[in-house]
Design brief:
It is globular and about 40 Å long. The termini are far apart. By secondary structure, the protein is α+β, with helices and mostly antiparallel strands. The protein has one domain: Jelly Rolls. Strands 1, 2, 3, 4, 5, 6, 7 and 8 form an eight-stranded antiparallel sheet that branches. A hairpin with a 2-residue loop joins strand 2 and strand 3.
């Protein structure tokens, strides 16, 4: 079993354009999410952490999203399971979903998401993996692994 915690870089700004994009009830397109991410990345950075666990052919990564934050994710290479605890609104393809409390949900591969945390929220994604290190697991998890917070890329706006 491998368990590590890495510091991440997350963008912080007072801008609310990305926040409004998902709070209006209509999901932005994948292209629009990528456009918003470019703007989010221009904001100042703060340190946050991602917790990683590799065990029994699975890789789990947990991020704690602060209240008021807007985060973009990377598209995952395979379908997976997410455990979400808190209060969050996020895109899932053409849908915008708000979840509160503790939820275990299926998640489809290939979707770039944008999320808004109404309250501090923990989001754990669990994947099948043959990796033995976090670096291997991240590369296996997404073709856009270089954009992960745990690799120093920030994608979070604090409202």
């Amino acid at each position: 079993m491998t368990r590590t915690k890495k510091k991440n870089q997350v963008s912080v700004t007072n801008s609310s354009h990305a926040n409004m994009a998902i709070r209006t009830g209509s999901a932005p397109s994948q292209d629009k999410i990528r456009e918003m991410e470019v703007e989010i990345l221009k904001a100042p950075q703060i340190d946050v952490g991602t917790t990683h666990l590799i065990h029994a052919g699975m890789y789990a990564r947990t991020v704690r999203i602060p209240a008021g934050a807007v985060v973009t994710g990377v598209p995952m290479s395979d379908d997976h399971v997410c455990i979400i605890s808190g209060d969050i609104t996020f895109t899932a393809g053409a849908d915008v979903i708000r979840l509160t409390g503790y939820n275990v949900i299926p998640a489809s591969k290939g979707l770039k998401r944008i999320v808004y945390a109404h309250q501090e929220t923990s989001w754990t994604a669990i994947f099948k993996s043959g990796a033995t290190t976090v670096d291997e697991a991240e590369v296996e998890m997404s073709a856009e692994y270089d954009k992960l917070q745990s690799r120093g890329a920030g994608k979070c706006l604090e409202q």
